[in-house]
């Protein structure tokens, strides 16, 4: 056997994230073996990821695995993995809506989905959240088009629009919009909303933890006391949401809210969870937007709730704004979240093979 094994992949930017996209058939199905391979491919654990293709940042240490789906009405299955930069951890419990932006183009580029005309619809099943998403990809002239006028904050320049329409987003991990049945509750003396739309989250007001909500990611990351307190709260939130012991896991995620100051609906900072997101996650945007629409949450009286239930929630974040198109309907005195959509972009950066040590394959556990 050769000392290194090659795995085909395409390196893509998806939204404000970046990483390799693999065909599922090329990645081991055994979770332990898959973890070894992905850690080696990305160069983890190492703060520079010098021995792999990771970008030494949470947003550039992500992996997408895509394969043809056998589910009715679905084109491809998508499994996301967050590869820790400095720890030997590969977490497939959350999803990533930014990396999701590249799934449609990758599926077309890989021959999994045929081009249907000037635009091609790719229906994706998100294995992480057990939900469906429709990606509308620009495909004029019989190929994926990456050039266009769409601009998203956190990415320089412009690119072709990719519309993501999220379905089945409520109760992604817990099976309920409000896993505890409460719109607001207290953890460590802080009012929080525990909500699950596209990703389970603990959402709270910045002022309740002594922050303005307008701090930069660097300023927040430097406050170790803040992160210590938030982590203790997050562990309790995970227990209450039925997620068990979430030590070492990235869900539930967290967000702090403040009043918008640049014409948006709300200002927010998103935690991933042990670091502040440089921009804002798509799945987190869907969850925060749902929190804004739902009466009685921690966003009530703070956020500028849009008129009507088919609306756009504008989240102000460190590098600009995220526009989230929400569809909801009234249900008594409450609101039922139906779907959400965002505009993202993606770009194919490189196509080839990544090499990993061959001895990492087919290693039996000592257990």
TrEMBL record:
<dbReference type="InterPro" id="IPR007400">
    <property type="entry name" value="PrpF-like"/>
</dbReference>
<protein>
    <submittedName>
        <fullName>4-oxalomesaconate tautomerase</fullName>
    </submittedName>
</protein>
<dbReference type="InterPro" id="IPR047687">
    <property type="entry name" value="OMA_tautomer-like"/>
</dbReference>
<comment type="similarity">
    <text>Belongs to the PrpF family.</text>
</comment>
<keyword id="KW-0413">Isomerase</keyword>
<dbReference type="Pfam" id="PF04303">
    <property type="entry name" value="PrpF"/>
</dbReference>
């Amino acid at each position: 056997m050769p000392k290194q094994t090659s795995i085909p992949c395409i390196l893509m930017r998806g939204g404000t994230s970046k990483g390799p996209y693999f065909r599922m058939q090329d990645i081991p199905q055994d979770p332990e073996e898959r973890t070894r391979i992905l850690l080696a491919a990305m160069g983890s654990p190492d703060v520079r990821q010098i021995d792999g293709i990771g970008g030494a940042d949470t947003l550039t240490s992500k992996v997408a695995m895509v394969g043809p789906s056998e589910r009715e009405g679905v084109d491809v299955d998508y499994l996301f993995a967050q590869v820790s930069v400095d720890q030997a951890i590969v977490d497939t419990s959350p999803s990533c809506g930014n990396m999701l932006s590249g799934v449609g183009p990758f599926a077309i580029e890989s021959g999994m989905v045929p081009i249907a005309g000037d635009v091609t619809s790719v229906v994706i099943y998100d294995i992480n959240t057990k939900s469906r998403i429709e990606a509308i990809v620009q495909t004029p002239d019989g190929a994926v088009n990456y050039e266009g006028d769409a601009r998203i904050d956190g990415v320089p320049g412009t690119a072709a629009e990719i519309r993501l329409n999220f379905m089945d987003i409520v109760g992604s991990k817990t099976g309920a919009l409000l896993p505890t049945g409460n719109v607001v509750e207290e953890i460590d003396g802080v009012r929080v909303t525990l909500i699950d739309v596209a990703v389970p989250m603990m959402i709270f007001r910045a002022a309740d933890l002594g922050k303005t909500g307008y701090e930069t990611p660097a300023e927040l990351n430097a406050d170790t006391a803040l992160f210590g307190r938030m982590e203790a709260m997050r562990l309790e939130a995970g227990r209450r949401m039925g997620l068990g012991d979430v030590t070492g896991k990235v869900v539930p995620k967290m967000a702090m809210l403040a009043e918008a100051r640049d014409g948006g609906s709300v200002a927010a900072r998103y935690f991933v969870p042990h670091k502040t997101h440089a921009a804002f996650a798509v799945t987190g945007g869907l969850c925060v937007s749902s929190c804004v629409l739902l009466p009685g949450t921690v966003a009530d009286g703070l956020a500028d709730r849009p008129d009507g239930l088919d609306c756009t929630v504008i989240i102000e974040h460190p590098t600009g704004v995220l526009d989230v198109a929400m569809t909801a309907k009234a249900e008594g005195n409450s609101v039922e979240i139906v779907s959400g959509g965002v505009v993202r972009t993606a770009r194919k950066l490189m196509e080839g093979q990544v090499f990993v040590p061959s001895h990492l394959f087919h290693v039996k556990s000592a257990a």
